[in-house]
Design brief:
Elements: H1 4-19, H2 23-27, E1 40-44, E2 50-54, H3 57-67, E3 77-81, E4 97-99, H4 102-112, H5 123-136, H6 141-148, H7 153-157, H8 164-174, H9 176-179
Antiparallel strand pairs: 1-2, 3-4
Helix pairs in contact: 1-3, 1-4, 1-5, 5-6
């Protein structure tokens, strides 16, 4: 079985990619805040705004293994008990383990993706990739702003650079010649 650090890394990675949320937003989620049926959770966005992130089936399948029997407290935890005094909100009430920090989440992701194609990956690459893929799949500006938590199109622009292949697919799909009916074969009615 994958150790806790591995489960943290995998679930956090899938969740970060699927939600396109900032790492600090995902790491701040608590178990009792999860709406598992609707695959959503509230997050504190940059600037303090409260918003909702939504995930897909990949995260939904991984969450039960990560949570186990826990009912409340931080979703992502360190493997050991906290060695320093932390606010109660950052501790697992049953085992005293601390909320996973950004630094440790980044280390774990880099460690567990080091042998993957294009690895090791960073937390920010996951966010960037999801937003780019969503743009390439046709998400509009309003959808990309909601997905990313950005309030400015200017801030969003750096995440939505289409690949040459995506641009070619987009143009091919809009080509008027493609929309014309194909010519009829002679001898058919």
């Amino acid at each position: 079985m994958c150790p806790l650090n591995c489960r943290n890394s995998i679930t956090s990675s899938v969740n970060r990619y699927e939600t396109a949320a900032r790492a600090s937003e995902v790491l701040g989620v608590n178990i009792e805040e999860l709406d598992r049926r609707n695959k959503t959770a509230p997050v504190h966005r940059k600037g303090g705004a409260i918003d909702v992130i939504a995930w897909q089936t990949g995260t939904a399948h991984l969450l039960p293994r990560l949570i186990g029997t826990r009912k409340k407290g931080p979703l992502f935890l360190t493997e050991r008990k906290a060695r320093v005094t932390l606010p109660e909100a950052d501790l697992d009430p049953d085992f005293g383990r601390a909320r996973l920090s950004y630094r440790r989440a980044a280390e774990l992701l880099e460690h567990y993706t080091a042998t993957e194609p294009g690895g090791p990956w960073t937390l920010h690459q996951l966010r960037h990739s999801q937003l780019t893929h969503a743009a390439e799949d046709g998400a509009n500006t309003a959808q990309l702003l909601a997905l990313s938590g950005h309030t400015s199109v200017t801030s969003l622009a750096k995440y939505t650079r289409l690949s040459p292949q995506a641009l070619a697919r987009f143009q091919a799909g809009r080509d008027p010649a493609r929309r014309r009916k194909p010519p009829r074969k002679s001898g058919t009615t």
